[in-house]
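pls read this stuff:
=====
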Amino acid sequence: MKQTFLLLLLPLLAGCTRDIPGCIHARINEFKKQQACAQGASVKKYVFQGKDAYVFDPGTCGADLASEVTDSDCNTLGYLGGISGNTKINGEEFSRARFKETIWQR
């Protein structure tokens, strides 16, 4: 019975991350260890300029921390916030992005 339950549960667990690229998973693991604050850190997925974009928000442990925005291939598109308070990526307001899901949070 226990084995049957685990076999039924496995596709559901695997399905939760099937559309997250491998490089994003690796980047999240690195981010958790080296850049993420103890509170408020997150990685969120958006649709921006017709493509998936991932925002790595370091959280609340420092003033003026910037959030890195990457594409599905882990190329940096730009940074939001920071000391300059930047709100644009590729010349477009990131507020136009459509939120899809939170991938990870602390």
Notes: The two ends are 34 Å apart (CA to CA).
